[in-house]
Amino acid sequence: MGNKIAVLGVGLVGRAMALDLAKKHEVISFDLSADSLAKLSDKGIPTRELDISDHKALTAAIGEFDLVIGSVPGHMGFEMLKTVIQAGKNIVDISFFPEDPFELDQLARENGVTAVVDCGVAPGMGNIILGYCDQQMEIEDYHCVVGGLPKKREWPFEYRAVFSPADVIEEYTRPARYVQNGELIERPALSDREKMEFEQVGTLEAWNSDGLRSLIRTMSHIPNMIEKTLRYPGSMEYMEMMREAGFFSTDPVEVKGQNVIPLDVTSAIMFPQWQLEEGEIEFTVMRIDMRDKNGSGVRYDLYDEFDVETGTTSMARTTGYTCTAAAELVLSGAYKHTGISPPEYLGKDKSNYEYILEYLRERNVVYEISTL
After folding, report:
1. How confident is the model at residue 81 (pLDDT cuts 50, 70, 90)?
2. For a 10 Å CB count at each end of the chain, is N or C smaller?
3. How far is CA 345 from the centre of its chain?
4. pTM > 0.90
5. Among 305, 338, 354, which residue terminates a domain?
6. Tell me, what CATH number does 185's domain have?
């Protein structure tokens, strides 16, 4: 068998990655949820119960592994990554935590660790594509829109959460940053909504979200960069209203003599309605346009649906297989950058870029490329 890999977190995406990597490697998956672990052990993947937030327990658990895959909720991601780096283990991570991963760059260098972060679909594959195209053309504008949605629209939310629902709500509350004419602009999340047409699904609505992340630092020479999230038209008006009315607040309010956090109540009501039903069809759509100063450029289009044959969600496929492709590059020694490595670093090397595109294509995740 190949290398020994630890997968930390076995939600929908973590399970897809464990199953993909287990085709070539020895994989053991870790989570605190016995129910989540059972869904993998039923498919023949060894599992272990672990409180991933426990620094000592996590350090001991990963000691025997060649590589770690991080797939935990964002609020746990930074400390998990720090623990893995301190243990001297290479990691490819999709946890999308709010902290700046470059705070751990020196620690990773000191420990000789390759830590590929934000390695999903967006951030992730979008960064890899930009990293490659940045070597091929003088980019003036980078514009990315992306979203994962259920094919069946059901009022009131018209949405299902494939990632940690808490991380989804943070998208609605965290200020969005983008770059315009070389200046960093900050706007409220959900702002500047615009309708866009997609052949496979019709009209969707794009809105400002904080998706550029590391690109603001690593691609600062590009004067215009923005990423927006896609949802069904009109559905974000509800979220904006709820945010402004305080339903997403973490400040306690007194109710009948008890301190209650509004976000906890909102989550308890909303999250059950956001769960994907067994076999429910959902899709991922992404479009990236890059142009030079003359307006010429290139477009990348992705449309992917739930895999009925394997029962794997589209968001798990598009996110997870980008991560497992990067993991293969790290394991093979084809990618050796020591320190914190956002995905755009991977894309700078043409062979890495081509390998990842082909890896995804073999799994029927296909990016259509055209000129502008």
Report:
1. very high
2. N
3. 16
4. yes
5. 305
6. 3.30.360.10
